[in-house]
Design the sequence.
């Protein structure tokens, strides 16, 4: 048996703006009237979302750059805080240093983040879904979405095959849950993610790991992955050839 496990947000879907939508709203609710600078302190809604992106393009661009440094869901708080305080962060090390000096209940923010996410999903799952477009090449049919068609890798994706946050905080826990559900060995799982920190915590289990180069990983993260002998799939169109060789 061989199992292909693919992260959704950041590998198949461009989740950056959707995560901003939720984390900004959660941040505003956490701090209330003290929030002043980010996006005028106004909450995002489905109705104002398009206009807010145009009005605050500079802030959106800086957020996209900071998004590359995310390691944990609680890091979105650090990004919103950096933007509010107008701190200039140059690299991953500076981001980690800033994050580590914050006095903040990350567990509470994580729970608030997911509550906000569930609220908007219930309002309109369709509108929520389209906050995260698939990556351009994926949308054109050159790579990932074809992997879920029978003629591509020979399997289909059912709702029961989706593993979310309820299976654990780290992807290593997801891999263990997958192995248990399907009666597979951990070294029979092939896992693709755009977050190097998740791969480094998972490969020690024996899982075959791959870094998606089109997600939010930086060039320095790609270099680190290569040093750790983690395969980097640079572009979406390279996914099938790499997996065909690995799964063959």
Sequence:
């Amino acid at each position: 048996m061989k199992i292909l496990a693919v992260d959704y947000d950041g590998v198949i879907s461009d989740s950056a703006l959707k995560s901003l939508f939720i984390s900004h709203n959660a941040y505003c609710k956490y701090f209330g009237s003290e929030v002043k600078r980010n996006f005028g302190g106004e909450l995002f809604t489905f109705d104002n979302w398009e206009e807010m992106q145009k009005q605050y393009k500079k802030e959106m661009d800086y957020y996209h750059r900071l998004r590359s440094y995310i390691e944990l869901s609680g890091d979105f708080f650090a990004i919103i805080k950096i933007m509010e305080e107008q701190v200039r962060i140059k690299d991953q090390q500076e981001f980690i240093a800033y994050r580590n000096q914050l006095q903040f209940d990350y567990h509470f923010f994580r729970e608030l983040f997911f509550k906000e996410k569930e609220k908007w999903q219930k309002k309109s799952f369709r509108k929520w879904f389209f906050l995260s477009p698939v990556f351009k090449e994926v949308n054109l049919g050159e790579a990932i979405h074809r992997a879920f068609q029978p003629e591509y890798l020979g399997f289909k994706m059912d709702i029961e095959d989706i593993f979310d946050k309820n299976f654990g905080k780290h992807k290593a826990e997801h891999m263990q849950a997958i192995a248990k559900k399907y009666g597979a060995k951990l070294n029979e799982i092939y896992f693709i993610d755009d977050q190097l920190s998740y791969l480094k915590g998972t490969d020690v289990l024996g899982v075959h790991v791959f870094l998606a180069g089109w997600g939010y990983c930086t060039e320095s993260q790609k270099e680190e992955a290569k040093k750790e002998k983690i395969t980097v799939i640079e572009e979406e169109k390279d996914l099938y050839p790499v997996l065909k060789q690995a799964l063959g």
